[in-house]
Backbone:
């Protein structure tokens, strides 16, 4: 980032004070790297440029030598000398222009756009690869836990919605449908918070509940687990889904910087990823201590089958689980792999 | 902005001063047509630089201060744009003037009695050299000083640019 800023000395840039824009998530890093690659390109030193500069220097030297040699013979010999010196700044400018990255105004304007496209394309490729490695996502039985997660940053989601969501989960817990406590508190400014989730002790079993909540003050939107009944990817939506929709995120419409939109979106992606990882960890660890698999499956399906929701899923994400993989199988391929490996340091 | 402005100022002033020193201390000594042209060129360039910085400051004020009223913002924006246009025109005139001055110098247009006698600087004491038999020490020293000054300024500027490009390359 600093390199990109130093390269932009001749341009008026303003850094926003919103620190959330500079969270180090993959798409931000790709974006900044793309900007840096585009804006810090230098002119290359060619033989022609070197030759021209050397010729100019030689001519200057001739003028200086002539001025000193003809010092006492011709009085007016200072003219060439003085003219050479007063034009000498041009040589400095040319060499500096070769050293410092320069670009035209059109390139400056197109650089953020192409960086947007590149980073979003990269993200789409990653998500698509995550979706397609385990085969086409078709109708999946509920018991496998292989559900479709939908991250939905729709503006209408507000605090009330989240409250309803949490309360309904608690209600389910009171009805005895969930007997496992798992507080997945997500704070967007601290990505680690969701991964620092701890499994409850065995003594707490039986009267606990599961809560998934997002921080409403920061985000105004929540993660929602959509139902799994969609048979396949909607191709139209798949085509539409990233650039056009992302720029119309809540309160993001008038932002020119792509970082804002994409960092928010990627937070949701990371959130989904973390939720999957934790659920998977929960499943495996509980399996080891003899947790009732049926109950666990219910937990997961309740989370994922939250249907009291949302008009439209924005980003269809599929956990990287094999379709035939159930929780009873414990092969390595059953585990949910992380979509974004750079966050594994938090664990 | 501060670094860039200071380095540009050093480069510009150093080159102009070196050229002016050489011209002024060559006989006939004193302010003549050519040295006046050089000085005017350098002075106008400095003025242009300060006007450009002022324009940048006003543009910055216009862009960032959201609490200001619309009239104040429009006023500062007008000043910024007007200063930018004025400085652009001034810079055009200045560079054209330098080219014209060089052409005059080479085409011996300034090789007339008024300019050779340095009437501008010397006034009634002006004279024209027909045969110079005195010491050339001052003349030689002035040329050495001018050359060294321009070389030093050039080296300083190049080192600065090189360091800046290095710092942007390896971060």
Residues:
């Amino acid at each position: 980032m600093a390199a990109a800023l130093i390269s932009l000395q001749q341009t008026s840039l303003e850094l926003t004070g919103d620190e959330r824009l500079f969270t180090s998530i993959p798409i931000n890093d790709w974006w900044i790297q793309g900007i840096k690659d585009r804006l810090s390109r230098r002119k290359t030193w060619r033989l022609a440029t070197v030759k021209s500069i050397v010729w100019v220097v030689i001519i200057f030297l001739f003028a200086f030598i002539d001025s000193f040699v003809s010092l006492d013979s011709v009085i007016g010999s200072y003219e060439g000398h003085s003219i050479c010196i007063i034009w000498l700044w041009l040589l400095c400018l040319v060499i500096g222009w070769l050293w410092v990255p320069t670009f035209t105004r059109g390139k400056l304007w197109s650089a953020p756009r192409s960086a947007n496209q590149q980073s979003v394309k990269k993200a789409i490729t990653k998500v698509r690869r995550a979706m397609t490695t385990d085969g086409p996502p078709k109708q999946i039985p509920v018991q496998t836990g292989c559900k479709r997660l939908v991250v939905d940053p729709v503006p209408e989601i507000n605090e009330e919605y989240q409250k309803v969501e949490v309360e309904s989960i608690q209600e389910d817990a009171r009805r005895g449908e969930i007997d496992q406590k798992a507080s997945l508190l997500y704070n967007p400014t601290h990505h680690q918070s969701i991964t620092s989730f701890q499994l409850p002790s065995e003594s707490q079993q039986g009267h606990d509940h599961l809560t998934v909540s997002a921080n409403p003050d920061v985000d105004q939107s929540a993660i929602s687990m959509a139902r799994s009944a969609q048979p396949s990817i909607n191709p139209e939506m798949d085509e539409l889904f990233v650039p056009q929709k992302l720029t119309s995120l809540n309160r993001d419409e008038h932002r020119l910087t792509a970082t804002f939109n994409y960092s928010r979106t990627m937070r949701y992606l990371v959130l989904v990823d973390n939720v999957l990882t934790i659920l998977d960890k929960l499943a495996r660890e509980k399996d080891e201590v003899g947790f009732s698999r049926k109950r666990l499956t219910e937990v997961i399906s309740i989370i994922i089958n939250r249907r009291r929701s949302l008009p439209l899923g924005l980003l269809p994400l599929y956990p990287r689980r094999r379709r035939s993989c159930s929780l009873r199988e414990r092969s390595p391929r059953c585990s949910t792999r992380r979509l974004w490996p750079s966050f594994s340091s938090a664990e | 902005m501060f670094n860039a402005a200071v380095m540009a100022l050093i480069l510009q002033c150093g080159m102009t001063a070196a050229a002016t020193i050489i011209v002024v201390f060559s006989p006939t000594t004193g302010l003549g047509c050519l040295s006046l042209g050089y000085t005017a060129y350098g002075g106008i360039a400095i003025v242009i630089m300060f006007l450009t910085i002022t324009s940048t400051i006003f543009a910055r004020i216009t862009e960032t201060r959201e609490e200001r009223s619309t009239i104040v913002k429009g006023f500062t924006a007008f000043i910024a744009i007007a200063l930018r246009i004025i400085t652009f025109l001034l810079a055009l005139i200045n560079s054209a003037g330098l080219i014209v001055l060089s052409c005059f110098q080479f085409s011996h247009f300034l090789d007339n009695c008024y300019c050779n006698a340095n009437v501008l600087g010397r006034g009634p004491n002006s004279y024209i050299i027909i045969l110079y038999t005195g010491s050339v020490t001052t003349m030689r020293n002035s040329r050495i000083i001018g050359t060294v000054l321009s070389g030093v300024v050039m080296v300083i500027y190049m080192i600065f640019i090189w360091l800046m490009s290095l710092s942007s390359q390896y971060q």
